[in-house]
Design a protein that fits this description.
The chain is mostly helical and about 180 residues long. The protein has helices at about 10-25, 30-35, 35-45, 50-65, 70-80, 80-85, 95-100, 110-120, 125-135, 140-155, and strands at about 160-165, 170, 175, 180.
Length: about 180
C-alpha cells in the first residue's frame, strides 16, 4: 500500500517513508488503517503534507479491507496491471513501477530509459530492456533498474556520455550489441 506515495521524488519518499509507515500501522493491516484513518492521516501530515496522496492510502486500505487481502492478491495475480490501476494515483506508467516493485518482470518507461532507448534507435523503452535482458540472461526488471540507476546518477540523466553504435553495447564491462554506455 505504500504505492500511494508514487509520483514524488525518490529522495522525498526516502525522507518520509519510515514516519509515514509508522503512521499507517507499518502496513500490517488494511483493516486497521481503515478503522484508524483519522489518526493515521493526522499523524502522517507531520512529515508528508500531500493530503490527496495520504487519503489515497486510506482508499487503498479500504479497497483491500473490503475485498479481503487474499481476494485482492488473487485478482492481482490474474491481471496485475489492470487490478493495480484501480488504486488511486496508479496510472499506466506508475502501474509498471508498482508492478516491478511487487516482483513482476516489467520495465518502467521513465524519462531516463525512454531517452536512452530512443537515442539507440529503439521504438519503446521495453524493447531496449528486453534486448539487454535476453543477451545478458537477466530479468527485464533487473536491467531496467541498472539502466535507471546509471542514468539517474549520471548528471541527472544527461545523455552526453551515452554513445549508440550498431555493433556493440558496453554496460560496465559487459559487451553487447547496439549500445555503449560510458
Amino acid at each position: 500500500m505504500g504505492s500511494a506515495l508514487f509520483g514524488i521524488r525518490e529522495a522525498t519518499v526516502c525522507r518520509v517513508f519510515d514516519h509515514v509507515s509508522l503512521c499507517f500501522c507499518d502496513w500490517e493491516s488494511a483493516d486497521s488503517i481503515q478503522r484508524h484513518a483519522g489518526v493515521c492521516l493526522s499523524s502522517a501530515r507531520a512529515s508528508f503534507r500531500h493530503e490527496a496522496k495520504l487519503r489515497a492510502i486510506i482508499e487503498c486500505a479500504r479497497l483491500i479491507a473490503q475485498s479481503g487481502f487474499s481476494n485482492w492478491k488473487a485478482c492481482i495475480l490474474q491481471n496485475p496491471l489492470l487490478q493495480l490501476q484501480r488504486l488511486p494515483y496508479i496510472g499506466p506508467i506508475t502501474v509498471l513501477h508498482l508492478a516491478k516493485n511487487l516482483g513482476l518482470d516489467v520495465a518502467k518507461p521513465d524519462r531516463h530509459l525512454v531517452r536512452v532507448s530512443q537515442s539507440c534507435g529503439y521504438r519503446r523503452a521495453r524493447d531496449l530492456v528486453e534486448a539487454l535482458a535476453t543477451v545478458n540472461g537477466e530479468e527485464v526488471k533487473v536491467v531496467d533498474l541498472i539502466l535507471w540507476r546509471y542514468m539517474a546518477d549520471l548528471n541527472g540523466g544527461c545523455l552526453t556520455p551515452v554513445i549508440c553504435e550498431k555493433q556493440s553495447h558496453v554496460i560496465g564491462s559487459i559487451t553487447r550489441p547496439t549500445l555503449q554506455l560510458g
